[in-house]
Each structure stands twice: as C-alpha cells, then as structure tokens.
Amino acid sequence: MSLPTVEDALAIILDAIQPLPFEMVAISEADGRWLTADVLATRDQPPFDASAMDGWAMQTADVAPGAVLTIVGESAAGRGFADSVGRGQTVRISTGAPLPSGADHVVIQEDAERQADRLFLRGSATAGHIRRQGCDFVKHDRLLAAGIRLNPWQLALAASAGAATLTCGRKPVVAILATGDELVEPGQSIGPDQIFNAGAPALAAFTARHAATPIRLASAADTDDAIIKAVTAATFDVLVTIGGASVGDHDRVKPALRSLGATIRVEGVAMRPGKPVWFATLPDCRLVLGLPGNPASALVCAELFLAPILARLQGATVESRFQTGFLTAPLAANGPRDHYLRARATPGPDGRLQVTPFPDQDSSLVTVMAAANALIRRQPHASSAEAGAAVSVLGPTL
Ligand SMILES: Nc1nc2c(c(=O)[nH]1)N[C@H]1C(S)=C(S)[C@@H](COP(=O)(O)OP(=O)(O)OC[C@H]3O[C@@H](n4cnc5c(N)ncnc54)[C@H](O)[C@@H]3O)O[C@H]1N2
Ligand code: MOO
User: Fold this and answer.
1) What is the mean pLDDT of the segment spanning 176-180?
2) Number of Cα atoms under 13 Å in the Cβ half of residue 156
3) Do the domain assignments include residue 194?
4) Do both 202 and 243 map to the same domain?
5) Which domain holds residue 211?
6) pTM of the entire structure?
7) Is residue 1 a part of any domain in this protein?
8) Domain boundary at 257, 279, 313, which?
9) What is the DSSP string of 61-94?
10) What is the residue with the minimal CA distance to atom 43 of ligand 1?
11) Number of domains observed in the structure of the chain
12) What is the value of ipTM here, to two decimals?
C-alpha cells in the first residue's frame, strides 16, 4: 500500500479539526496568539491635529524671519490650550500636543528665541511640523485582520486603538507522552541500556512556541496497560505521543489507542525522516498525533504536522511556511520519499538565504538537530543539485 504524501496527510489531518472556541485575551498576554476577530478603529489616530515637534504654534501669516510674537499660553501633550491663537500670537507646544484653534503652523524651538513673553523668529524658521488628525488611521478602519498571529508591533496598534482585550483562539492543551522502557528523565539515575528522554522536553518547548499549553505526562512503559492508563488519566485537546510508532514488538502506542476507540486516519507518510508518523481521532473528536521516536523524526513531524494542527485549532488559516534558499554545497539525487534535510540557513552577502545541509542526516542525531535551524525539502526523485541551486527551505527558526 502506498503511503500518502505530506500534503495529502496534512489535508486529512486538517479536515478532522474543528477550531476551539475563542476567548478574550488581555493585550499583555496576547503576543504569539492567533487573532480570531478583526480589530477596528473606534476613533482617529492621532485624534486631533498634533505638533510633531517641540516649539511654538502660530498662524502661517506670522512666520517670517525677525517676526516678534506674543506668547499667550501653552499646549502640552495631554493638556491642550483652551483658547484660540490670534494674529501676532503664539503658544508654547510640545511634541504630540493638540494644535490650538487658530494656529496652523509650528516653528521648532531651535528656530526661535524666547525673551519673557516675547518670541523672536530666526531666519531659518520654516512651515510645517504638524501631524494631521487621522494620518495614522481613521475611525472604522480595519486595523488587524482575523487570522494573523499577533506580534508586539501589532499589539501596539491594537493598544493605540484602545483595545484592552483581543479575541483569540483558545490555547490548545497538549499532553505529551513519551513511551519506551529505555527512557529516563534527565537528572534521574540511569542504567547502562537506557537513554535520557530528549523528545518530550523538545516537544513541550515546541508546543509552547506555538501558543499552546504543554502538559508533560510521565513516560509510559511499552505496554498497552501503561499507555492506556496514562492517556485516560490526562486532560488534553491534543495528545502527542513520542516513540512506539513503528512495527516492532514493543511498539504498542497505536494498538493501545485503538483499544480506546481511536480512529487512525493517517498511518505512515511518504517522507524521510518521519515515515512512521500517524494521526488519529478519539471518539470524542480529540486529536492524537503519533510521532516516531527518533529525535529528528519527531521534530520534523512536529514542524510539518503539529504546528499546523495547533494553528488550525486556534482558528488560523494554515499556509506554507517554505521559502526559497540557495545551496552552499551540492546534494545527491533524492530517493522515492520527500526528504527533509537538517540544515543551517543564514543570509548571504547578496541578501539571499544560503542553506548548508549537514552531511550526516541520520534521524537519531541530536547534535545535528541542535546545530540546525532549517529544513531543506527535497521532492521525491529530485535530481542532484549543484551548489548555488535554489531549494525549498523551512526556517530559519531561532
Ligand atoms: N523494521 C522496521 N523498523 C523500523 C522502521 C521500519 O519501517 N521498519 N522504521 C524506522 C523508523 S523510520 C523510525 S523513525 C523508527 C521509529 O520508531 P518508533 O516510533 O517505534 O520509535 P522507537 O522505536 O520507540 O524509538 C526509535 C528511537 O528513538 C529513541 N527514542 C524514542 N523516544 C525517545 C525520546 N523521548 N527521547 C529520546 N530518544 C527517544 C529510541 O530509543 C530509539 O532509539 O523506527 C525505525 N524502525
Ligand atoms: O524516518 Mo525514521 O523517521 O528514519 O528515523
């Protein structure tokens, strides 16, 4: 039986997902969250004609080298001048303060000299320095569109519109279950045939970076009972299992989930690494993503499947995150499966993204994963590629 492609598998997975309900999120907590309702402007910004500089407000007709004006008050940021500015008059004004009525011009303070209540304009005085009402945005503008992932600058825009809370997809709770008799938590004593659990901390961090809440479950032994017990005791929207996905005698995760009524919707994908990855839904529609145990396989599958799952659950439209990069080293022809090579991506001197694949692509190598910040995608049967050739790249990530 031929395995589905990554695209086909992802389509099956996304089709099985209903976004979680939205929730109101305080703006201070909203960085990295998915916005699910537009943010509209409720007023103009700036809400009044404002001075762009510290200086003096006056009428244009009074701006002339050597002119002498009478100082009649002040317009400070947050506290404007209540009266009108007439001919021959001026008002001290700060950056961001409302332009008083009657005035239509600001002279910067470097171009004038104050003596008591008199202001003398220098020859260098020029017109301008006013930010017009609504030059940034106007009432009813759509400032932020539903579907984006919020960043600090977009939060500044929402705050400028006075939004204290934003409508975001609820954070999915992701239970992470590593399986295997060989696994020991870092910091615990370890036997000669055992290894430290590297996958679960990596997946927990990955999950948190995708605006979801990870819950680390204690690793389960390679028995149906242990896995069933761990899953039934946990609360989650998504269960991510690590290991036990393949065909060995001790690979018990799928059988255990099947006995809980799970429907396996994807069972293996034509990709390297990560071929044994699987996806299922529980009878109550909660999701299960089964990652292969090798660290690179687990993380590549997390990038390709878990990231879109978490985005979709939070109401986002899932888009390709690949871009074009240029090889610094040649690549051999690819085999029959999609290949995701661990690589280092850096901007080149010409501004183009340069990518260097690591020579050893064994999926068990944590050192290579830790040195990589990108994946190069090679299509099935892609022919050999010279240094300088364009390739498809996911990343760079931090
Ligand atoms: N006869 C076959 N054997 C294997 C196949 C196959 O098609 N036929 N597929 C291989 C591929 S590809 C992969 S990937 C692995 C995946 O196997 P499992 O998901 O069953 O993973 P395990 O056997 O449990 O572990 C594989 C490897 O990774 C280590 N591991 C597991 N969990 C962790 C963890 N949390 N932290 C660190 N390391 C972990 C584990 O000790 C193994 O060394 O199967 C191949 N076999
Ligand atoms: O493809 Mo496995 O996922 O090679 O390590």
Assistant:
1) 96
2) 4
3) yes
4) yes
5) 6-21+171-313
6) 0.91
7) no
8) 313
9) GG--TT-EEEEEEEEBTTB---S---TTEEEEE-
10) 294
11) 4
12) 0.96
